[in-house]
Amino acid sequence: MPEDERPQDERVEKQHQALYRRYRPQTPAELLGQDHVVRGLTGAIREDRLHHAFLFCGPRGTGKTSTARILAKMVNCVNAPTAEPCNVCEQCVAIREGTHVDVVEIDAASHGGVDDARELREKAPTAPMVGREKVYIIDEAQRLSREAFDALLKLFEEPPPGVRFVLATTEPHKMPATIVGRCQRFDFRRLTIEGLAQMVQTIASSEGVALDPAAAHAIARRAEGSARDALSLLDQATVLGGEAVDEATVRALLGAPRGEVQFEIADVVAVGDVRGVFEVVDRLVLDGRDVRNVTNETIGHFRDLLLVKTAPGQEDLLDLAADAYEGLRVQAEKFSAGELARILALLLAAQNDMRWTTSPRLSLELALIRACLPDTDPTPAGVVARLERLERLANLAPEAVVVLEEPVEAPTPPVASPAAPASDEPATQMPVPQAADAGSVDVAMLRRSWGALIDHLGQLRQPILRAVLESATVASFDGETLELAFPPDKRFGVQKVQDRQDDLQQALGDLFGIAPRITCVVRESREPGGAPSVEIVEEEDTPSDDEALRRVQEMLGATPLEGGD
């Protein structure tokens, strides 16, 4: 990079100033993702209908305070009132630097008491000292005291000339209705993942940092709609990666991507892997992840799965990267809508318990275990799930487990004889991925790499097997036997796998270097309500009521009471 020729003082200032401060929006055109707010304010300026009090609501890091400062420039710029402040005049520069005496920023969390309310009521009506108008910007306005709200209410009812108020809050529901009713309200929106990724890419480029697109999307996902959080993460990533930041650098900073962890948790729940529950939670705790945040993210992931399941094709309802919807669609096929609703109810109950418990980890583990095993769920939904299980075990529904008894041998490629004539048609050689070390293959690896197997089956021109295995989840693998679990409504997948065992063996050998015996199970439905789905089995007649009762009694070890009906 060329030598920095700026004065030493300016260079030191830049070195110590965070990116989110240096790149704070200074004009309406620079506001990201809040076009509706920009249109409202600029339109009011042009038509001379600007309100005296504003309420800016929205999540953190979406530009509320920055917009308030831009509004102060609009009414104090040398060209004011103007929808496009020049940003270079003395008034605009003072507002940008935070030194303008007529633009007062108040932190309600620490300056919302009785004395502050009295000072506000006394000073607000006085005339501006250097600007055209006085602007009061009150951050976290919901934290104001009752006396402060009373003072504001009096000022709003009889607004002094040349004074405007901007109340910024992340919790508008805590604001008094009397205040809200006298303000012009603007709701700020979370920024999209694509918008944040593009923003950090642009800023990284201006800082001379080569930011990998995958790393930009990882930062945008973690920021959760906050531009300030995204720039703070970019700041940290440049400390680790220097002038080149790739996905590995961001992963080292943030740990495993949240999306990957949530997909792993959902796969564990899909097959009822209780051991996997403890292993995943233990790894997250060892990685320093906050269990409460993990629970919130898990709720969000299962909510997305439920939305995909019940409203297919509505990608616009999810704030996701463009390539993320397909992964959700595939995983949603492993659940029924009722199961997802029950899992969400368990997680929400755990989230509520975490407000009081000293062991949030246990709350999360219990919720996931109850999601895996209806037997451990004391709720009415769990009781219904257990009753459905008893009905199936009494053969009122087909047996849930189907095993492919014969081990599947790996196909042995024919060895060409040296004397064999060459074929007239050239053989098409398909590139085969390098096989993984078979000794390192375990359940977790197979689950993480299942998407790669699906893609490889597509390369092998096995569309049916690929489509069937999208809804399958690796239930267990002991080095010799691979067990695949299918959802209750995907029983047909068992036969499809059985018909194409050789092709599946080939794909497993190509990718993982393994040739296991393959078994398939159709897991029991854990849906909270409704009648269990019953499939007619021609090989075995449905038992009579007396026979079904006898089987349930044998299973439970119960005997009928003498003289009972």
Describe the structure.
The chain has 4 domains: 23-187, Rossmann fold, CATH 3.40.50.300; 193-254, Helicase, Ruva Protein, domain 3 (Orthogonal Bundle); 258-372, Zinc Finger, Delta Prime, domain 3 (Up-down Bundle), CATH 1.20.272; 401-411 and 432-522, 2-Layer Sandwich (GMP Synthetase, Chain A, domain 3). It is 48% helix and 9% strand. The chain contains 25 helices and 11 strands. It has helices at 8-15, 19-22, 35-46, 64-76, 90-97, 114-123, 146-157, 177-180, 193-206, 213-223, 227-241, 247-254, 258-270, 274-286, 291-310, 325-332, 337-353, 360-372, 380-393, 443-448, 450-459, 463-469, 492-499, 501-512, 545-556; strands at residues 53-57, 103-107, 134-139, 163-169, 184-187, 210-211, 244-245, 401-402, 473-477, 481-486, 517-522. Strands 2-3-4-1-5 form a 5-stranded parallel sheet, with helices on one face. The N and C termini lie far apart (91 Å). Residues 1-6, 10-14, 395-434 and 529-543 have low confidence and may be disordered.
Task: Note the topology.
Layout: H1 8-15, H2 19-22, H3 35-46, E1 53-57, H4 64-76, H5 90-97, E2 103-107, H6 114-123, E3 134-139, H7 146-157, E4 163-169, H8 177-180, E5 184-187, H9 193-206, E6 210-211, H10 213-223, H11 227-241, E7 244-245, H12 247-254, H13 258-270, H14 274-286, H15 291-310, H16 325-332, H17 337-353, H18 360-372, H19 380-393, E8 401-402, H20 443-448, H21 450-459, H22 463-469, E9 473-477, E10 481-486, H23 492-499, H24 501-512, E11 517-522, H25 545-556
Parallel strand pairs: 1-4, 1-5, 2-3, 3-4, 6-7, 10-11
Antiparallel strand pairs: 8-11, 9-10
